[in-house]
């Protein structure tokens, strides 16, 4: 398979750089257990990449919870305060980010996380690595990002923040979720997917390339500098 060369890179964060997706599951299950509900993987897949208010609204509606959107978000934030500070990096993420930085490839962050959530996950252990991102788009806190994934808003906004305003076709996105892949494709970008192994293979077919870990990625496939080692 041949791929088109790119000049710019955009990263999702949760489940791709940081091992946080299971923490969201724990947080939401802790809330839902109070109402006799289960946070299933089927529901989780629908929500991956959504903004905070979209997630709250969807869970409340689907499970008929006696909560307002604001109340659910407040309960979620209490759980996140406990769970997020000790988040770990996923394999291959640090190496790839540092490699792109070393070779002066422009790259940015495009996450649906809020500013508060981002800081909880990053500030304790990962500040140095995330300082390498010159451009960060935090979807749930960014007024320019009108809709969450699978809508293309976050990737188009993130690409517009590079000083040279690249054509979307010149941007490569890294994602772990089906909604993120659909958002990148809708934005006119190629997308490398590192999916949760529980995701059905048929749901990964929209991705330009599917790999099981960022450790497997070969930058030269997309015209980017090869790894030095």
Main traits of this protein?
single chain, 229 residues, six-stranded parallel beta sheet, 9 helices, 37% helix, alpha/beta
What characteristic shape results from the CA principal axes? globular
The main sheet comes to: 6 strands, parallel
Looking at the chains present, what oligomeric state does this protein adopt? Answer: single chain
Mean pLDDT: 95
General description of the model:
The chain is α/β, with parallel strands linked by helices. It is 37% helix and 10% strand. It has nine helices and six strands. The chain has helices at residues 21-32, 41-47, 52-63, 69-83, 93-102, 115-122, 127-130, 153-160, 178-186; strands at 8-11, 107-111, 135-138, 171-175, 190-193, 209-210. The chain has a six-stranded parallel sheet with strand order 3-2-1-4-5-6, with helices on both faces. Strand 4 (171-175), helix 9 and strand 5 (190-193) form a beta-alpha-beta unit. Helix 1 packs across helix 4 and helix 3 (52-63) crosses helix 4 (69-83). It is globular. The protein starts with 7 loop residues before the first strand and ends in a 19-residue tail after the last strand.
